[in-house]
Amino acid sequence: QTAINLTGLRQDTSLPVEVAADSLAVDQTDGQATFSGNVKVTQGDMTIQAGEARVEYTPDGKGIDRILLSGRVLFASPTDAAEADEAVYTIDTGVVVLTGDVLLTQGSTTISGGRLVYDLDQGTGSMEGRVQTVFTPGKAQP
Amino acid sequence: MARRAALDGWSRLVAWLKVLLPLLALGLLSTLFLVSNRVDPEDAIPYAQVDVEERLREPRMTAPTYAGTTRDGAALELRADETRPATADGQGQTAKKVNARLSTPDGAVTDLAADAAVMAPDGNEVTLTGNVTFNSSTGYDLVTEALTARLDETAIRSTTPVRATGPVGQITADRMELTQRGDGGAGYLLVFNGSVKLVFQPAK
């Protein structure tokens, strides 16, 4: 359990969410929406790229509850980036859970682990499972 | 003497009657013809105000309806203001101000409306053009310029960019297609293709 400060990825989760993809298939029976083909989810200055994204609606069907992304997922913001096999982004709580050999790069340090859970609103995160990090000692902070 | 006087009275009476009765008859007859209101034979039969030559030159049907069921059991109903039969040079039947309703077996109802429609010569596809709207009961309302719908199976696809409002947000895409699920399962898929963009505003 290592707590990480992710100020770089902190941003307001009430901004409009934009999902761009090559194709969107909506199942008419249960309303299941699946984006596929270099999916790009952008909110504010945070972008999430993935191979495929599935949207889960809120029970009343009027809003998006969670976006489940798969295929190599890449979260990026102007300063930090996180990479994983799969990710689940719950919009109203602003919590993103990345699983599957997560690689987090913050400026010059990189941290890898099994599972990364972080909260976009507070900008705090916790990495679990075989956490490894690489420091480059002695380098002058730019 | 008295009998002659009686006879005189009688013949005077008859003489007066000979004058009065014909006058009475004349009066009765005039109420029949002279006084009664004129009947104008012209407007007895209201003529249709349609230009007959134009109708002959371009035969057409007004307010036609087309109904049919597709192979997968979806009922399709087309209604138009006016339709013209196929022309000799192979152009299919055309129609104006078309609206159509597709009720698929899974209970969803899709309403289409367009300014004009052309039926393919082979008769199993109709192309709707001119601000086409596609409203589905599952909450998806689309606007596009051209849309083709197959009549023998449920397959509607748009050939021009589509702007849609879904239950969740605004969607824009290059093309759109409503088809049966490919993997044989029941139910239908509404697929958007080509630079799809969904914009969703969180409720917070």
Automatic annotation (TrEMBL), chain B:
<dbReference type="Pfam" id="PF06835">
    <property type="entry name" value="LptC"/>
</dbReference>
<dbReference type="InterPro" id="IPR026265">
    <property type="entry name" value="LptC"/>
</dbReference>
<protein>
    <submittedName>
        <fullName>LPS export ABC transporter periplasmic protein LptC</fullName>
    </submittedName>
</protein>
<dbReference type="InterPro" id="IPR010664">
    <property type="entry name" value="LipoPS_assembly_LptC-rel"/>
</dbReference>
